[in-house]
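Backbone-to-sequence.
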């Protein structure tokens, strides 16, 4: 179920507004926009759109037996990674960066944002298919740098199907398989990372894996390991 619109403020805000208004929005519905005027990323930062890029949102209904809502970032990352990997040339890997980015090298290709709305989680995803937007202090890349840009509607359909499958696995098999598969698609153990919000002194260390609940394990210089449940994570510059 995919609804397309020419222009909106934010696909995630549109779905949240429907939920707040009492509309029975079905799980599995995706709202995809040609253009977003008020798209946003983590920390309320503006999300730059681009013609031909994917900008869409869906919702997930949470149940009493559901794994933690925060781990949906891992589920979404796996779905986006699988669809993207099928579109890249052989030998050009995409890598998941905890908690919600997809990277090619040091450049950001896609990002995800989770927002709670009652008993649902609204998931917004942006993927640079044709245009790599200019973002201050960030390196970005689009799939068009590696061949013809994929058709946005084709990408939307592929992502919707793949995410539905990953969501089913998350519910029925728990976090163990999700975490193990994320580690295979994510930045390698030992990757230097900085953790901290912009303007703050970062906590520096190396990637030491994920905990059983999907939290980042950061190995510090002294040999201790810090568990990170949320925060801005960046690859350390040499």
């Amino acid at each position: 179920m995919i609804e397309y619109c020419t222009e909106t403020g934010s696909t995630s805000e549109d779905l949240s507004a429907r939920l707040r208004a009492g509309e029975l929005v079905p799980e599995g519905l995706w709202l995809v926009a040609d253009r977003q005027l008020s798209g946003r990323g983590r920390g309320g930062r503006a999300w730059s759109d681009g013609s031909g890029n994917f900008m869409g949102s869906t919702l997930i209904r949470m149940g009493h037996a559901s794994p933690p809502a925060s781990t949906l970032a891992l589920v979404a990352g796996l779905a986006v990674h699988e669809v993207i990997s099928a579109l890249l040339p052989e030998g050009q890997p995409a890598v998941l960066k905890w908690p919600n980015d997809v990277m090619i090298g040091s450049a950001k290709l896609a990002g995800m944002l989770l927002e709670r709305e009652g008993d649902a989680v609204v998931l917004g995803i942006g993927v640079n298919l044709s245009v790599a937007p200019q973002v201050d202090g960030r390196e970005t890349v689009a799939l068009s740098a590696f061949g013809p840009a994929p058709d946005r509607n084709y990408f939307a359909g592929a992502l919707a199907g793949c995410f539905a499958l990953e969501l089913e696995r998350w519910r029925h098999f728990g976090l163990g398989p999700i975490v193990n598969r994320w580690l295979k698609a994510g930045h390698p153990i030992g990757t230097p990372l900085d953790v901290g919000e912009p303007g703050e002194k970062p906590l520096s260390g190396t990637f030491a894996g994920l905990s059983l609940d999907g939290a980042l394990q950061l190995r510090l210089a002294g040999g201790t390991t810090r568990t990170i449940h949320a925060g801005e994570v960046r690859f350390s510059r040499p």
